[in-house]
Every structure is written in structure tokens, then in C-alpha cells.
Design goal:
The protein is an alpha/beta fold. The chain has 21 helices and 23 strands. Helices cover 37% and strands 15% of the residues. Helix 1 runs parallel beside helix 7, helix 11 packs across helix 14 and helix 16 runs parallel beside helix 17. The two termini are 42 Å apart.
Amino acid sequence: MAIEKLQKRLLQGNEALARGLVESGCVVAASYPGTPASEILGSVKSWQQAEAVEMHVEWAVNEKVALEIAYTASQTGLRAATAMKQVGLNVASDPLMSAAYLGVVGGFVVVSADDPGPHSSQTEQDSRLMAMLAKIPVLDPGSPEEARELAGVAFELSERFRIPVMIRPTTRVCHACQDIELRPVTRLERTASFKKDPSRWAATPKFRYQLHLELNGKLAEIAAYGPTAPRCLNPEVKSRRAVVASGPAASYAKELFADLQLWDKMNLHQVIQPYPLHSSFVDSLLAEYDEILVLEETVGVIEMQIRDRHKVKGKLSGMVPEAGELLPEVVERLLAEFAGLTVPVQVAVQAQGGRRPTLCPGCPHRASFYAIKRAAPAGIYPSDIGCYTLGINLGGVDTVLCMGASISQAAGFYQSYRVTGQRKDIVATVGDSTFFHAGIPPLIDAVAQGARFVLVILDNVTTAMTGNQPTPAHGSPAGRAVHIESIVQGCGVGFVETADPLQLPAFTALLKKALAYSREQGVAVVIAKSPCLVDRAVPKQKRRQPTVSSACTGCRVCIDQFECPALRFEPDGKRVTVDPMICSGCGVCLDVCAFKAIVREEIP
């Protein structure tokens, strides 16, 4: 059925937000994948194709590049957007800060998806604080429908005040589902037209001061902008107590006001623009209420803009938790306590046992880490951000800081041991997408500074952790593939070899060769190239099924040190078996078993 004939569709929050961007006339969109924002750009591409809209949609090499591409489109008068997760905004912070001063022509929306919890991030930082630092307005959707709605509001706000605008959905909004009415796509029919003005677009520090003053003036006006003003959801009620909520906490509060019968007892205000908070709203709050409860994730951004600390209860007062999600049960307890009701008893859920997260059966990264441990058993193993971080279960990951840091930390470890007269084998691991994202500058630095370590680039030919998005090694229809080997050689590395980690003996021997080189000459790079098995684009191979013979001694090395989910230890028989339902047939376990008890079946 054609999209034009559909009135409503059940959409994930990221799909709804993408729909809002396309409906509002966005024609340039760039992103780097990161949960919980990963699905936004793919959905933009899907809506673009479904609606036959002329757009440029790209997976950029990192968030900084994505923001710069989209911002430049706004300088030409087009509507543009960039999307990333909250830690990705750190990478893009440099151009964001400057863009706030320079302003925009076409609407420019920065989507920064936060991860309170956190569920899949290094931090649960609040992007609204970054918006405050940059001095740009931020909008806080509480549902998929509001995310779609605020996309249009953000473009209007951006063009009205010539300023970048942030939309900040959280994990619960990004991954919730809701029936969304599809609206017609706005076709603005604009043409790119960059008007040269060096005093603005290339402003020197002297002129940046004036731009800063102008930015402050814009914020004051935005704090009085009607379409983004807070909404009182029950204005007919006259009370001396009020709840102020934003994001998912506002959605929970709406439902809980009914459950706790609070709609006629106190006022509920939803804030969709936490920064800058509307000045008239702050004045009315302080004038009309004696007690104010503020519910927001994750930092008290709204709370700190309400001047009277004696009236406000929230994170700064200690009533609302300062870390973690405000889940429905938490919001219920806070509302009941604030209203003077009996606080609901929280039923403790007993933790259930289960298998810890681990790499997939047949994942080439498992073989890489196992080989690293065998080649450098006393080494230090800095690693990076990706599904391969699960190498920590295999004892192959010692540090994880941020994207690209494994290479910098490997150099830091080398220099630390060197200056104290010690030597240590160091084997760093980084994924292929992460290497393109943030690994090239530290590799250049390591070579230039004479560091000595082995870098294993885990090239599974995709961005696996976030949904198998392409890397620059795939190229694009309009461009060419960029090969990792060429980049590494261009960085000045003298040892670069590629091998399949599933060929465990040969791969282990290559790592030992690389270690020998690194000890005497400098950085050695091994590219462990083998495709991700869950990538739908990878042709599936038929392999013979491994089985365990009677030679198994029950030593558990394959279970405890290799940790393939397809291998199971049977306590009764004190031996290992292979689960044929999940075994990929990669055969690496045949080389792991010292007793050669794991063999191939005769029949494919």
C-alpha cells in the first residue's frame, strides 16, 4: 500500500522523528551510528525513498564530520539535520559551539539521543547541559509523537532566530512505539545559495565577541517564544502545589496523575523547551505555587533555572535521584510523596540468573582475542568501543575509555613503561568503523613518537554493534571505497599484514611475528579481517558441523577461556557438547581443544 493512503502507522520513536524531519523539508541529513540514535538516519533514508524526495543522506565517518556537513547545508539556506548519541555530541562539540555563534540560514537541527541508565553507553550525560554550554535551545520530547511534532517546531525555531536547535530524545522515546499519523511532506523547493560574508562566516575573535552578544539576545527572545512555552495540562485547577516535568517523566506523570487521582489536586506542567526556560513561566511558578516538584532526566537543568531553592523539590534538593532513569515506579513514588499520599510499596524483583552477554557464535572477534592471549599472555590489552568490548569476558580487554582511545592508551602504556626502564607487550584492539572514526590521528601520533605496540584492527566489514551500517571501506554510489591497509601505510606504519582470525594457528603465528617487530622497531598493525555473521549482506557459508568425541577430558578450556555459546558443559557426563541450533560451524574450537576432541562431522 502506498504511504499516501495510510492514515496512521505504528512507528518506533526514531522512525517518527525521522518522519518529522522529512515532513518538515529537511534535504540534507548526516549521522554516525550510536545507540539509541542509530535508526534515525536509516529511517530518514527510507522515508526519502518512499516519498521520492531529493535529499542527501549519509553515514559520515564520525559525528564531527556529520555535524559540519549538515551545518554547511544550512549556511546555503537548506534545512538540514544531524543525529548522534550523547557521547557522539562530545565529538561534535567543537563545530557545535562555533555554529551557535555564527548562526544559520536554513533550519539546522541537532538530534542528540541521551541514554539515562545507561543502557549502552559509557556515560548517562545530559545533552541539555551541552546545549546550555553552546547557548542553543533544546527541545525535550516525551513520546514518539512529540518527537515527530518537535522536528517541525525545531526547524521553525531555528529559522526564526537563525540558531541551531537541539532535539534531545532519550532511549525510552527513541525505542518506544506509537501510532503516528503520516502527514504530507513539505517540499520547500529551495535552491542552495551561499552568500559570501567573511565577517560572519569567517569571523575573527574580535567579531566573535559581537556574535556572542547577539547570541545572548537570541536566547532572551527564545525564552519568550510562544510555540515552545511550557503547557499546563490542567489549568482549571487552582492549587498551591505544582509538578513540572519534561521528557519521558512527563509522559509517566500524565498517566500517574490519573492513577493517583491528582488531576484535581495539583497542577501539572509539561516543559518541551528545558533551555532556555521561559522567563514568564519561571515568574508565574514562583508567584503561584508554594511547592514545586521538578521531574527530569538526568540533571536538574530545569530546576537550576528556577531561582527559588526553597520552593523547588528535585535533584538539587535531594528528593529526586541524581542518577539513573526516572522509571514509572520511581515517578509514582515521587508523586505520592509530594502529594502526601501513602507511598506505594515497591515490590523487590529478585535477580534472575542467566548467561552474561557474550560474542555471537562464530564471531571472528572471539578468535582474535583468544589468539592475542596466546601470543602475548602477559601483555596489556587496551580496547575500544564496539561489540568487541565483550572481549573483556575472554580476558582480552583491560581498558575501555572512548572511541579511538585504545591506540592512544597503547602509546601511553608504552611510554609509561619505557620512561621507567621497563618493557611490556601491548596489544590494542579497535574495530574497523571505530578506526575510521577516531583511530587515525592517534596512530599517526604513535608512529611519530616512536611508540612500540601491536594494533589489531578487528575488521568485520561493517558497523556491527549498531545495526550493520556501512563503513568508508564500502564507499558509496558516488564515491570510492577507502581501504584500511592504505590508511595504515599512509600513517607511516612499517608492519601491516591482513589475516583471517578464524584460521587460528596461522593468525596466532602472525601476532607473534608482529610482537617481535613491535619490540624492536615500532608499531605493528594486524588487520583481522573476517565478516560479521549477523550482517545480512554477507553471503552465508555452508560448513560441516563440529562434534565432540570421547576424547574430551572435561578440562573446560573451550568453555572458560574461549566462551563460545555453542559449547555446553554437561556436568553429568563431565564433558562438552555442541549445540547444533546455534553453532555457526566456524571450526575455531577444533584448534582450541588441546586434546583434539572436537572434530568435524562427516555429513555437511
